Amino acid sequence: MKTLITIALSLLVATGSLAQTYLTQARPADKKEWGYMNEKGEWIIEPKYRKCFKFSEGYAPIYEGKKFFFINPKGETLKTEVENFKLFNVFGIGMQGFSNGMVAILSQKKWGYLNTDGKLAIDLKYDKALKFDEGFAVVRKNEDFFVINKTGDEFPINGAVDVKNFSEGLAPYRATNKMFGFIGTDGKEIIKAEFTSVGYFSEGLAWAKTIDKKIGFINEKGEWVIKPTFLAAKDFESVSGLAMVKDGENWVYTNKTGKLLTISSDRPKKFENGFAKGIKGDKWGFYNKQGDGHRG
What is the DSSP string of 188-238? Predict the structure, then answer.
């Protein structure tokens, strides 16, 4: 029986054990229902869902019968204090699951957070709620933005018209002058809003675009570590330590010192879990951080 496998592998760590199991969504070619396979190609959860999403922190979101719910790797449903809710849809990725032990849910037109016990850990009272990272998340109430911790304490963010997710203790924000900078977990500005666009911090660096539309990478003090000479860039990937950048007409890769790496691919892709997909004609494969390729 042919099987179509999609989406990146999701890492699950068994509670109380060092054992690791990789699961991914999969469906038989002759069916419309999806299930989950392990890295050996064995069905762990038989295909029975029309819409299922990747596992994170031991649970996967499922949409079935016009309802969202979560399952564990045994296929058991997590009992939740709020039964009818929606999840945040991340464009190009799917429904946002648990992060840092919490997941944002929408119910009765307000956002709050469930924990991995299924309890409503933070009340439904926000108009926008982003994912938790290292104990903090960004929320909006009416027109005001706040940083909250996992007990629900609020720290106001002044002068912000938009704020994104935290990463490595810093969150990109857009100020009233329409420029971008970064705030810390106390809601206060850490890096001045003087860039036309920014990425997320990863490996201690974030890309930033200057007024003259050149992109480089800054550190957590807002200092240039890689000078702004690129036309576009992606965030650094933690396993490879590389980021995609557009150098002239070509997409290449840079390490944290600015040394460039070019791979032989018609359509280079960003690194994920230490590997980048490459395509040459009708052949595809994966490259490691040294640029060595393996044909698929």
Answer: -EEEEEEESEE---BTTBEEEE-TTS-EEEE-TTS-EEEEEEESEE-PPBT
Contacting residues for 180 by C-beta, under 8 A, at least 6 apart: 172, 173, 174, 193, 195, 196, 197, 198, 208
Tokens coding 217 = 């990478």
CB atoms closer than 10 angstroms to residue 199: 22
Query: Which CATH code fits 81-195?
Result: 2.40.128
**Which tokens hold the place of 183?**
């705030």
Sequence spans of domains, the chain: 1-78, 81-195
Over the chain, what is the mean pLDDT?
Answer: 89
At residue 194, what are phi and psi to the nearest 5 degrees? -140, 15
Q: What is the pLDDT of residues 228-283, one digit of tens each?
A: 999 999 999 999 999 999 999 999 999 999 999 887 766 777 788 788 777 777 77
**Residue type, position 229, single letter:** T
**Cα–Cα distance, 124 to 152 (Å, whole number):** 11
* Measured distance between the N- and C-terminal CA atoms of the chain, rounded to whole angstroms: 21
How do residues 68-113 score in pLDDT, each as one tens digit? 999 999 999 999 999 999 999 987 678 999 999 999 999 999 999 9
Tokens for 55, please give them: 């596992």
pTM across the whole model:
0.84
Q: Across the strands, what pairs with 102? A: 99, 115
Tens-digit pLDDT profile for residues 192-242:
999 999 999 999 999 999 999 999 999 999 999 999 999 999 999 999 999
Contacts for 85 with CB less than 8 Å, ≥ 6 apart:
68, 105, 106, 107, 114
Q: Which residue, 193, 151, 154, 158, is CA-closest to 172?
A: 193
Give the position of tokens 């999701």. Answer: 10
